[in-house]
Specification:
2 domains; Clc chloride channel; mainly alpha; disordered C terminus; globular
Length: 433
């Protein structure tokens, strides 16, 4: 009896195409896991460089921020226009026409390299950007490149799997990667795509686990709220998160699509907008004593652990993140949005005396993130995986679902879906509408 017959696989054909497709998925997932680790470490180094410079000479360092904004935005728009912004809309746009996108600039290695360098440059200049959105675009580009090298056809599943694995590798949150693929990256989620996504997420997660270790993004936490407090505080934070997140999304959508004279004028003068946004970010950094620079990771972790931060942290971070996003520079909004949500939870904790502040901060993170992205399932899973806290799942779902509904009333259009339209060719836009 042959080995295949022993396992009941004698009728299964291991054709060359199938083997190459599986090899491409494995190699791509390994590569993107490695690149995500390098990107994370480089981002931490870039932010550390800026933090040290700001501590040494605050005024001079802040004065350089607007010029970094203008330089990065100018270079991006001139040479790498597909590398601007988050990177998630580009992946979504590419998924609508995968065959053409595989040969185009949206998810090319050239664009991915520009996204990598541009995001690091923004962190070196104090921009309130995250690396998670850029990791999605970079990962999708790597996955597509491997498939092209091995002459394997590129379909929507390849692009979606690469992007989802990027979320998983960036946050060390495999379930959130799958959830994000379902809620955001894939308009029509098929079983084949689901299997491909989970395989890519699993492999990239194992690479990250093997090299970076079994870490929890914000550290393991255990917070609890009484039932009566859940019934009151979770809806309140959900409403606030939905209002603030919806307002943030509405501003970005208006900048991208509004035909009002102010926004049309702003889009026609991108470098002037970048300069103005850089000045706003610099002012927020100085006014908050440096709390609004970068991703806000350290401050968010401190708040989630029950610590304290400046009361200006949340508002300053909101302003800095909005200005950075409006500038059109490369960089994501995931991590900064988590920080704004933490600041929102801290503000609520000032009025809810006696309640565990860490629990309210956790709710704020989920509510505001949902308000911006409008992906409540992803928000809850990503917060749970980043804190290893299962006790808060019920209030997290309450806050996230309410935030999603409130945000939809403030900004009818979903942020990433709307921004993706700007990266799709005219014929694709019409055919998909």
């Amino acid at each position: 009896m042959s080995i295949l017959a022993k396992f009941g696989l004698e009728n299964y054909r291991f054709d060359r195409g199938t083997l190459l497709a599986r090899a491409a998925a494995v190699i791509g997932a390994v590569l993107l896991g490695l690149v995500a680790i390098v990107f994370a470490q480089s981002g931490e180094l870039a932010q550390h460089v800026f933090t040290r410079a700001f501590a040494t000479n605050p005024l001079l360092t802040a004065a350089g921020t607007p010029f970094v904004f203008v330089l990065v935005v100018g270079l991006t728009r001139r040479w790498f226009p597909e590398a601007r912004g988050s990177g998630i809309p580009q992946v979504m746009a590419a998924g609508h026409n995968p065959a053409a996108s595989a040969d185009g600039p949206l998810i090319s290695l050239r664009t991915a390299a520009a996204k990598f360098a541009g995001t690091l440059a923004m962190l070196c200049g104090g921009g309130a950007v995250g690396r998670e959105g850029p990791t999605v675009q970079i990962s999708a580009a790597l996955m597509v490149a491997v498939h092209r090298w091995l002459r394997v056809p590129v379909n929507a599943g390849v692009i979606i799997a690469g992007g989802a694995a990027g979320v998983a590798a960036a946050f060390n949150t495999p379930l959130a990667g799958v959830a994000f693929a379902i809620e955001e990256l894939a308009a029509a989620f098929e079983q084949k795509v689901a299997v491909f996504v989970m395989a890519a997420v699993m492999i990239s997660g194992l690479v990250s686990l093997g090299i970076a270790g079994d870490y929890v993004y914000f550290g393991a936490m255990s917070r609890h709220l009484a039932i009566r407090d859940i019934a009151v505080l979770a809806p309140v934070i959900g409403i606030l998160g939905g209002l603030a997140g919806g307002a943030f999304s509405r501003c970005l959508v208006a900048m991208a699509t509004s035909e009002r004279r102010l926004f049309v004028l702003a889009r026609s003068h991108p470098l002037k907008v970048a300069l103005a946004c850089g000045i706003v970010v610099a002012g927020a950094g100085l006014a908050s004593g440096g709390a609004s620079w970068g991703t806000g990771y350290e401050t968010t972790r401190e708040l989630l652990s029950g610590g304290q931060a400046s009361i200006a942290f949340g508002p300053a971070k909101f302003i800095a993140t909005l200005a950075t996003a409006l500038s059109g520079a490369p960089g994501g909004i995931f991590a900064p949005s988590l920080s704004v949500g933490a600041g929102l939870g801290q503000l609520v904790s000032f009025f809810a005396k006696g309640e565990p502040s860490g629990a309210l901060v956790l709710l704020g993170v989920a509510a505001y993130f949902t308000g911006v992205v409008r992906a409540p399932l992803t928000a809850v899973i990503i917060v749970m995986e980043m804190t290893a806290d299962r006790a808060m799942i019920l209030p997290l779902f309450i806050a996230a679902l309410i935030a999603d509904w409130v945000s939809s009333k403030v900004c009818h259009a979903k942020l990433y879906h709307t921004l993706a339209q700007g990266f799709r060719p005219a014929q694709v836009k019409h055919s998909g509408s």
